[in-house]
């Protein structure tokens, strides 16, 4: 059964963010793959994606392989909306490739849902991609043919065609993939299904994460996931990361590896650690919760202010708020309660509700806040609109003073590697000083963590991270045409 949804490039998704964009950077995608003959791979893939839901909420898809056939279902919506027991039953096979998507290249369209499935000389391939190719126009030119119709508007389909063309030119899967990767510039963590086995690969800088897990049994079986939380949910043990510039090949015989990049240079997106990835995911041998606690501790050392309570913006600001509290000896308390069951709503609120601001998602605990000097900790400020509403709500609740502390440096530059951080002119810190932002969002004081502090507490080589959205120092050069689309101001470097 092929369950392709018909491509409809004109159709706009109800999930589109073109209006009312959320005031946070948005993660690009989550990828997942499992090679496990004899196991319910569609279900395992479903739960893997379920754990990776935070990485993309616009569409979800699973492709399964059974001998030379591929079964695929993908659609707009959350993982739990796209799949049910009946649909999973109709996805048989020994290998599953899964994807959750937030659009960074190509609009939010049903046709752009992944995995991308293509025919080749050696059978079908199914590709799931997290990241962003910066030379996508060159790549498109390379793979364009007079009789070729692109089904999507994504860079991921270009990568799939690049591999398919190498296969059709006579290469085996591995040589084809490596040669295709060599013509891709940018960020890509990939899980690719083929009739002969499953490929996991990261770009030479390893900007987006990708981990390998093992499902124990008579014969160990391998799992690939954007984050370790995707392994935990199905009971797989973390084995190791796919290295930057590495391709792993998973078949009936086990796992083998090719280090194909000439000069791999580790540049993991530091924002994954600060905010995007789940706090229970492990990077560099520790949970991101622990890293975020230390960010808060460092923040307290750098920008202590006397107050009665420290609170975090739920959920992502909470670990750093706890760290701030521990290091400052100021009591931690809750002051904002999140409605955990709120999804994206497409019903327009009434004018009165709109004026009430954030209350649909967050509500204040008035008796905890009234007459207190409050420190509110968040992980980042992008445009500042949500921060202003939160501060207003705290003042309405009777806070005597509101001090905001941010556990990352000011976001001054857009991301080109798979995170939607808006155009540069929309980033409040790109055009305003800390004092000006303080005034705009209405706080008594505002302080950000320093760039040095953010990297110091990784306890790793500070050169092994991308931090370009804080510095403008992009580790992979950006073609001018792409730069112009997002970098509205001067391109500064740190
Ligand atoms: S520019 Fe920022 S968000 Fe993008 S990869 Fe680099 S650190 Fe991550």
Automatic annotation (TrEMBL):
Cofactor: [4Fe-4S] cluster; Mg(2+)
Enzyme class (EC, first level): transferase
UniProt entry tagged with the keyword 4Fe-4S: yes
Gene Ontology MF term list: 4 iron, 4 sulfur cluster binding; amidophosphoribosyltransferase activity; magnesium ion binding
Residues that hold [4Fe-4S] cluster according to the record: 269, 415, 466, 469
Active site as annotated: 29
Start and end residues of each stretch annotated as Disordered: 1-23
GO biological process, one term: 'de novo' IMP biosynthetic process
Biological or metabolic pathway of the protein: Purine metabolism; IMP biosynthesis via de novo pathway; N(1)-(5-phospho-D-ribosyl)glycinamide from 5-phospho-alpha-D-ribose 1-diphosphate: step 1/2
Cofactor binding summary note: Binds 1 [4Fe-4S] cluster per subunit. Binds 1 Mg(2+) ion per subunit.
Domain Glutamine amidotransferase type-2: 29-253
The keyword Magnesium is assigned to this record: yes
Lineage top rank: taxon: Bacteria
Reaction catalysed by this enzyme: 5-phospho-beta-D-ribosylamine + L-glutamate + diphosphate = 5-phospho-alpha-D-ribose 1-diphosphate + L-glutamine + H2O
Pfam families on file: GATase_6, Pribosyltran
Annotated positions binding Mg(2+): 316, 378-379
This enzyme's EC code(s): 2.4.2.14
Keywords carried by this UniProt record: 4Fe-4S, Glutamine amidotransferase, Glycosyltransferase, Iron, Iron-sulfur, Magnesium, Metal-binding, Purine biosynthesis, Transferase
Family, similarity comment: In the C-terminal section; belongs to the purine/pyrimidine phosphoribosyltransferase family.
General function of this protein: Catalyzes the formation of phosphoribosylamine from phosphoribosylpyrophosphate (PRPP) and glutamine.
Name of the protein in question: Amidophosphoribosyltransferase
Species in which this protein is naturally found: Hyella patelloides LEGE 07179
